[in-house]
Specification:
This protein has about 200 residues and is mainly beta. Helices cover about 15% and strands about 40% of the residues. The strands form three sheets. A six-stranded antiparallel beta sheet has the order 1-2-10-7-12-5, with helices on one face. The protein is globular.
Length: about 200
């Protein structure tokens, strides 16, 4: 498996080997030793999620309060998605910037996003199944969202797909509103969290 840090620090791409044969294929989308070597700590998995989405569905942009935040490691088990990561850490040199990765069940590439990064994806096939490994359990009182259609963010969703959103995501605030009302995590709080994780090695 190959691990590559993306342009936003704390966001990683993992590319496992896929072994096809006449029956289908086999791969290991998450490999603990590779993750530990790349990031310097083990991924603490408190919850696994599996979402099923039809073509055009956008889930996100979601993030959690830091501390403790919620890091995510995700891959596509069926279909394909456009995955978007946004730096929401106030004080970060890449604040408000995004990283886009197209993921599908053939290559089985996976992405990891650290605490403090926002995440959203759009299903680009008729059906997409996405698996997530989450570092902390779901806690609705600590969960927040940014509009994935915020015109100032101008996230690069695929052309020709009509976005389908939940009411919660459709009504989520803009990045500017979240910043002005103090809802976003600070870079320092996230750095403290990352240092604490590395200290467990």
């Amino acid at each position: 498996m190959k691990a590559t840090e993306l342009s936003i620090d704390g966001a990683w791409l993992f590319e496992p080997a896929v072994f096809p044969d006449g029956r289908g294929s086999f791969t290991a989308p998450f490999q603990g030793p590779v993750f530990r070597e790349a990031l310097g700590f083990d991924l603490q998995v408190a919850q696994t999620n599996l979402s099923f989405s039809r073509r055009g569905v956008i889930r996100g942009m979601h993030y959690a309060d830091v501390p403790p935040g919620q890091a995510k490691y995700l891959y596509v088990a069926a279909g394909a998605i456009r995955d978007v990561i946004v730096d929401l850490r106030v004080g970060s040199s890449t604040f408000g910037e995004c990283e886009v990765v197209d993921l599908d069940a053939d290559a089985m590439r996976a992405v990891y996003l650290a605490e403090g990064l926002g995440h959203a994806f759009q299903a680009s096939t008729e059906y997409a199944a996405v698996g997530y490994l989450c570092s902390t359990p779901y806690a609705p009182e600590r969960e927040h969202g940014i509009s994935p259609l915020d015109p100032d963010l101008a996230l690069p969703w695929a052309d020709g797909l009509e976005p389908v959103l939940s009411a919660k995501d459709r009504d989520a605030p803009t990045l500017r509103h979240a910043l002005d009302t103090g809802l976003l995590p600070s870079r320092q709080a996230c750095e403290d969290r990352y240092k604490a994780l590395r200290a467990t090695r």
